[in-house]
Known about the structure:
With 68 residues, the protein is an all-beta fold. It has strands at 14-24, 27-37, 42-48, 54-61. It is built from no helices and four strands.
Amino acid sequence: xxxxxxxxxxxxxxxxxxxxxxxxxxxxxxxxxxxxxxxxxxxxxxxxxxxxxxxxxxxxxxxxxxxx
Length: 68
């Protein structure tokens, strides 16, 4: 399972410190924690369809500023 998909080259503005996917019926709850977020507006949530293509299904805004 691919959990993270880089969308650009170079430095990534987020240092991910934890990630979990918890299934509940036909849904999955995603939870993550970060150590740092530099110039991060939020997180795009994507799901791979049955053809292997990634589709955006949600966007989670940044809750707080935790720049180093």
